[in-house]
Every structure is written in structure tokens, then in C-alpha cells.
Amino acid sequence: MKRYLRVIPLALLLCFSFACQDKAAMAELEKYRVQAAVEARNIEIIKAAIAEVDKRNLEGFQAYVAPEFKLYAPSNSTTPVSRDDYMAMVKMMTAAIPDMVHNVTEVFAVGDRVVLRVAIQGTHLAELQGIPPTGNKVTASYIAIFRVKDGKAVEEVVEEDFLGLYQQLGMELKPVAAKKK
Amino acid sequence: MKKYLGVVPLILLFCFTIACQDKAAMAELEKYKAQAKVEEQNKQIEKRYAEEEDKGNILEVIDEMVAPDVVYHYPNNNDERGLETIKQNEPSFKKAFPDMKHTIELQIAEGDLVATRYKWHGTHMGEWMGIAPTGKELNFTFIEICRFSDGKLVEAWIELDWLGIMQQLGMELKLKEAKK
Lengths: 181, 180
Description:
The structure holds 2 protein chains of 2 kinds. By secondary structure, chain A is of the alpha+beta class. Chain A has a 6-stranded mixed beta sheet with strand order 2-1-6-5-4-3. Chain A has 4 helices and 6 strands, in the order ααββαββββα. Mean pLDDT of chain A is 89; it is low at 175-181. In chain A, helix 1 runs antiparallel to helix 2. The relative contact order of chain B is 0.14. Chain B has helices at 2-55, 58-65, 83-89, 91-96, 162-168; strands at 66-74, 78-81, 101-110, 113-123, 137-149, 152-160. In chain B, strand 1 and strand 2 form a beta hairpin. The N and C termini of chain B lie far apart (84 Å). By secondary structure, chain B is α+β, with helices and mostly antiparallel strands. Mean pLDDT of chain B is 88; it is low at 174-180. Chain B has 5 helices and 6 strands; from the N terminus they run ααββααββββα. Classes of the chains: A alpha+beta, B alpha+beta.
């Protein structure tokens, strides 16, 4: 009888060995799951920030964008735009293009970064940067890479084609300074 | 004695139950790991593409990396459709900018998408987009989002500031169609 009793601890030992091997794998799985959850949340934060701009709710926008936020457009810009300056730019753009909206066409997130391809569109109804209103429907797309920290956007890097946009606004290619978005 | 023997199968059953719960978790872990591997592969393909372009060797290897029905989306709704079209257009960059160089500043991948932020420079030594060689150093940055399928590029969205580029090449006073 004692012989058979000894089998039980051996069987338990065997089971625990399997369970312990799995613990490392489970820890790895948890890591992936946690990262996926953070990335999904970061995407929601950036989408929410963009939605606030479309709603013209600049207070709501600030909830998703840190005070120290910097926008680099294009990405090698040496004069990044602050959060306040960005909000001023939005006011200027929407004064001229009142129905301006963003449409996110591609989005994904890795770690603390969120990548989006965005199409903006609207109607040019009032003067913009000295350009008289054309009544044209304008559309432009850009790619932005955001960095998110503690639930807020802290950095945005943008590449956008301004030539196409100015052409739609009825401009010929003249010596105009490449305006940041 | 038989009573104690009876406990052993119960214990084994218990262990198998726990092991089976883990099987679903293991499958999930495998999925994450497999995806990470594909993401890394896709990043490498993109990296290699840029290197081969810089070497002037891209046409030799492009079939390995790009699907035949690929589409490149350029700004302002300019698209290049199909690998044959792209092969025709590819040599012009290297010919016009013989010392062209891509530098990858950032590359991130998820699923079948890779986003790459590039720095680009080259000296304008040959005709390009109707612009006679200026000898100027062209520097710009761009971001590309690439979609891969089964180890090949199937779609790419390229965003860059054409206005800045045209200005660097001294084209301030002419209207130029944003092509390619």
C-alpha cells in the first residue's frame, strides 16, 4: 500500500512541473494582452482628440492632449507647433473651411505610438491665409504618428502634401512659405 | 489499497483539466508570437526595398518583395497600379539622384501594416519630373504605410510634402502637377 501511496506525490510533482513551465508562458501571454489593451486604449484617445476638433470643442480636445504636446509637420521640422498654436491653427482653418472634418482611413498602434492616415475635407468658404474663398470642396490626406503618454498625446509627427491642397484652393505654385498644418 | 489507487486517476484528471484550460491560452500565445514574427519579417522587407533602391538594384529583386497587383498611393490621389507600371517608373529616381539615400528614422508594425518614417537625400544630377538637373541637394522626409500579404507588399500609402520638394528644386513659380 505504501508503494502506491508514493505514486501520488510523484504524479503531483509531474503535474506541478507542467504547471510551472506554463507559468512563464502565461506571464508572456499576459504581457502581450496588456500591451494590446494599452494600444487599443491609445487608439481611442487619439480618435477622441480628433473627434473633439471636428466638434470644435477645443476644451474637450485638451483632455486628450498634454500641455507639453508638440507637433512636427513635416517630421523634420525644427519649429514644432505647441498645443496652443495648434488650436489657433484649427480656429484659422475652420474659419475658412467651416465644415472641415477628419476621416481616419487607416489606424494602428504599437507600444506608445499610434499611426493614422487621415483625410480631411471641407468647403473653402472664407479667406484662408490671404486666399480668397473659392467655394471649392477641398480634400487632403496626411499620415500622423502620435506618441501617447499617461493617456494623452504628447507628440505628433505629420507628413502631408501641401502642394495638392494649395492647388485645390485655386493657387498656382507661387513663392509661398510651406505652412505647417 | 484500492481506495488509494482510486485517488491517482482523480488527481490525473484534475491535472489534465488544468492543462486543457492552458491549451486555449497557449494557442493565444502562439498567435501573438506568430504575428510578431510576421511583423518583423515585413519590416525587414521594407528595409531591404529602400536599400536596394539606394543601390540602384531594385529591379533585380522587386519581384521577390512586391505582389503583381500592388498599388502605390501617392499624394493628391495619384496612384501607381500594378508592378509593371512601378518597374517602369522606378529607375528614374536613381538616375536623377545617383547618390540617393534613405535613412529609416522609425519603423513600427502591427498585423499586416508597417509604418516607416524616412529621411531622404540626394543630389539632383539628372532630369526628374520635367525639371532639368539643378545640382541641388534635395532633403526631405516622408512616411509610408505599407500593407503586406504572405511576405509581399500589396499596397502602400506614401505621404510627403511635394510643395517643399518643388521649392527646393527651384520650382516656386510654376504650377506642377503632383505626379509620382
